[in-house]
Amino acid sequence: MPENTAHSQDLVLDGFVIPAGAGQQPPGLLFDLTAVGNWLEPFRRKSPHTHRAYQRIAAYWLYFLEQTHGYHADLLLRAGPIDAHDFLRALTHEPLDAERSRNSAVLASGSGQFALARLAPAPFWQDHGPRALPNHFGVASNPFARAKSPRSVAQAIASLSSLYKFNNTKRSAQDQALLDFNPFSDLGRFIVKQDAKTDRVFEPNAYLRMLSATDRLLAQAETQTQQQRAIRLRWITVALFNLWMRISELSSLRMSDIRQRGGVWFASVHGKGRKVRAIEITPAVMQELMAYREALGLPALPQRQETDIPAVVSLRRSANHYPSMTPRALFGEVKDLGTAAADWLLESHPNPADLEVQSLAERLRQVSPHWFRHSGASEAINGHFPIADAAERLGHKDPAITVRMYYHGDAKRRVGALQALEQARQED
Fold it and tell me: Which InterPro entries match (predicted)?
């Protein structure tokens, strides 16, 4: 067994590893697991996706603390503001204003309340190797190997802040709060603010480039597996952009969830909070699904009894077994496709002075699955698709969220309107 995984006698619980024998020790030895478990529990059934995301970032934080302080059962108690600042630096790969941030952290630490001993003079997180160091929290891949996006960093810090806030609260009059401080409370001013509306949107031309890339992959395929992957990549691209689904929703979608009612095809999607919504499927998208199904050796149209066949099938399948792709695997496929599309774009337009091509190639490299949801919905809304219908299709309870996150005014149209006003003034 690899050295960075737990011994066989250890107990793995929701991604966290309780060392063997811990159950025979005083309850205090499970302090971190208790605090994290209490925080996660409300999301277990209400929102499995949020539960997984919070669980993952908590494991990263505990992994960071273990590598910094050594393994203890109460790492959350030992963490201080300096740890939080260093964690932020590990996520971003960018140095903070070192003097300002460290002074702020030292002041927040008060009179030496927090143990700040380090195991090594060089921060472990500056090593960007792919494998995690040995740890007790089920972390196999180095979470700091690649810099996180500003949005991911902000979400991580907000999540961990909520972990401490949750455990700052007494559950009852008889209980004591598990944690009476929050090392992340001062970090907000050190996080780069991004415009939520422009961060994850690409133009329709980028979508067409990615479709062309799947066609090129298919044309170059030399094996059946490569052919199947290219056909699947095209379906993933079409589904994400046109159905506005989250990556977790596409991963969990089954063929039996796609049904026809009143002459219209729908996908019944289980979204956040286990809410179910129906997403209309156009004939063009159904044609793409039918092509994908036929490549799998299935009937062209989905069947009600196909409850064990996912809408996106892993390549590791057998004749009667159809495993689904995990969200992480889908993410990797989309990133690979964006990179391939960018490479081929630059290959066909080698002029480095063509700034428009260079910009499009950079956007293609940045693309992640959630960009498809934002971009497809934004294109429709800017094309006068009704906001109320868009909110329902996206799974938003409040249409104001849809307007704030997905409406992007057409700059060229605005400039044209302003120019028309200027011309009218001159004529007057």
Answer: DNA_brk_join_enz, Integrase-like_cat_sf, Integrase_catalytic, Integrase_recombinase_N, Tyrosine_recombinase_XerCD
